[in-house]
Amino acid sequence: MNGKTPKVIWITGASSGLGRSLALQLANQGNRVIASARNQAELEKLAAQNTNIVALPCDITDEEAMQSLSSRIEEISPALDQVILNAGNCEYLDFPDPDWSAVRRVMEVNFFGTLNCVKLALPLLKKSNSDRPHVVAVVSQVTAAPFPRAEAYGASKAAMRYFFDSLRMDLAADDIDVTVVNPGFVDTPLTRKNDFPMPFLMQVDEAAERIVKNIAARPRQYSFPLRLSALLSLSKILPGVWQKMVAADAAMPAKDSGEGVSK
Q1: d(C-alpha 185, C-alpha 174), whole Å
Q2: Residue 157's pLDDT band (boundaries 50, 70, 90)?
Q3: 244/26: higher pLDDT
Q4: Which pairs count as long-range contacts for 232-239, CB under 8 Å and 24+ apart, including other chains?
Q5: In whole angstroms, how far apart are CA 62 and each of 38, 44, 112, 126?
Q6: Is the pLDDT of residue 89 over 50?
């Protein structure tokens, strides 16, 4: 691993897309990766590709199941050095008759499910022998600008972003670093269901490579690609222009699944 000490890393949402690519790249560096998601079959396929990966299925929204998950992780390792909280979902609201219950469903996975992971991970991170354990939250650039139909997804990711920015302050005394990663559009099974243009769409392995490289420096925030960040800044500089640019998307018919924005 280029002279670096291997880490024990827990990754959620690892059965496909960005989480899967992150697990493979980090395992290829020699790290011990605990890969979690609901899809056990896909996790087992992932683990078969690298002996450094251990498949540990879980549903992050099931609080009772999460309570027992800690002991299952400790059977693999007594401590965690890094967690990458990547699990998430998206449903769109289609006006004039939106399914308002979608907001609760999305928040349950993206925010409250991630909160369950934090509660589980912190005691194990505090047992780490590394100099500074590391929490990485995969959020989204959607928090930088409003998008049509993305009320549920955007609100859940904005809540995540604030939560981890605040958590960083409370964990400073424990020497635990917190990084918020804000990807743009990445070509994954979720985003392939999107029915609108996705500027600066990135391949999943390239996106994962950027994340692995940049979180090594433990920045507070890492947003990419920069071209998308510059485009989204229009929403604050010229909000009226931004609204006219994206309003057409609101009139586009939604696909049945309604899932997938940026991961």
Answers
A1: 34
A2: very high
A3: 26
A4: 232/141, 232/144, 232/145, 233/144, 234/145, 235/144, 235/145, 235/146, 236/145
A5: 11, 21, 10, 24
A6: yes
What is the number of other CB atoms lying within 10 angstroms of the CB of residue 51?
9
Cis amide bond preceding 225, omega within 30: yes
Q: Which of 92, 153, 162, 222 is catalytic?
A: 153
What confidence score (pLDDT) does residue 199 get? 87
Tokens of 3: 């002279």
* Nearest C-alpha neighbor of 188 from the set 201, 178, 197, 177: 201
User: Which residue from 166, 82, 152 is spatially nearest to 111, judged by alpha carbons?
Assistant: 152
**Distance (Å, whole) CA 110 – CA 18:** 15
Residues 111, 163: contact at Cβ < 8 Å? Answer: yes
Annotation says 162 is catalytic: no
| pTM of the predicted model as reported, rounded to 2 decimal places | 0.91
pLDDT in tens, 221-239: 999 999 999 999 998 999 9
**Burial class for 208, CB neighbours closer than 10 Å (0-12, 13-18, 19+):** buried
* Residues 28 and 101 sit within 8 Å (Cβ to Cβ): no
- Phi/psi at 213 (5° precision): -65, -45
Backbone angles phi, psi at 25, to 5 degrees: -65, -40
Domains of the chain plus CATH, in order, are 8-250 (3.40.50.720)
